[in-house]
Amino acid sequence: MNISAPGLSRVKIRALTRYVRKISGYENQVYFPIVQFIELILGDPENPNFNYEIMEPWEMEDMYGSTNTNTNTMKIRKDVYERAVEGVPRDRFTLCHELGHYLLHRPQVMAYARGKVPRYCDPEWQANTFAGELLAPYDIVKGLSAEQIAMKCGMSMQAAEIQFKEYQKC
Q1: What is Dmax (Cα atoms) for the chain?
Q2: Per-residue pLDDT tens for 116-142?
Q3: Domain boundaries in the chain?
């Protein structure tokens, strides 16, 4: 069985990431501080709607992170979290990806699907797109090369190239 989410275009996901940046005060900042966002904004003790747990690698097996939207809990493998703190691009992307699941994939809107799920309904595509758009917003990086996007936004070259190619379509 596949999982299907309500359809979202890249444009709609981009609008959500702009909103997340705006309400958190990072609207015009090139480098999005995902660790601080999780720790200080979402993880604020006054916010009972979100919890994150740093897990030992053996507890997570082959997963880097997971998000349970039934319990509003994000679990992140300890080595991934520590590398994200250090600014390692792939691990920063993982945290943004899990944030995408947290914001986009509430249990009441998810469904089981038979057969192939269209890309725009695929929760993994949506979370990856959310991560790319959060880390490298079009309005901030338009006109930059993929190499410049990777360096300034703290992204892997692979993720920066995907964003760069998408922005060439705009």
Answers
A1: 43
A2: 888 999 999 999 999 999 999 999 999
A3: 2-168
